[in-house]
Amino acid sequence: MTSSIYDFKAQAINGDEVSLSNWKGKVLLIVNVASRCGFTNQYEGMQELFAKYKDKNFSILAFPCNQFGAQESGSDEDIKTFCETTFNVTFPMFSKIDVNGANTHPLYTFLKEQKPGALGTKGIKWNFTKFLIDKDGKPVERYAPQDKPEDLVSDIEKYL
Known about the structure:
Structural class: alpha+beta
Oligomer: single chain
CATH class: Alpha Beta
Largest sheet: 4 strands, mixed
Number of helices: 4
CATH superfamily: Glutaredoxin
Number of strands: 6
Order of helices and strands: EEEHEHHEEH
Low-confidence stretches: none
Number of domains: 1
Radius of gyration: 14 Å
CATH topology: Glutaredoxin
Strand order of the largest sheet: 4-3-5-6
Shape: globular
CATH architecture: 3-Layer(aba) Sandwich
């Protein structure tokens, strides 16, 4: 049985397979993202969080997803270029995945089981749903898309 996110691998946006165990001992914010969403400007706040806490064992892992209103229809290269040029994103980004349905990435199956949403719902409702992961690789909080990155500071600091 899977006990932490460290049991998973994912494809980085550059195509390399990456083990999430590379982030052992760090507090993580895992986010499904999209380039053409009403919440896309949250990249700015996410980058600010990353810059502020990256030297304190914190990182953000962004997983583009095209399942909500086709708001992430570009290629991985398009997504990477957009995030770097528009928001100066320097935190790790991954290849596009599904977070719901038959082709859900195994990491998201685990996250949804460990931290269901409102009223126990498992499905991801929209882009920019966020999961806070503690230093042991366990999901400890789930946030709605409208929860702004800057509003998560006290929770992040609690787990650092």
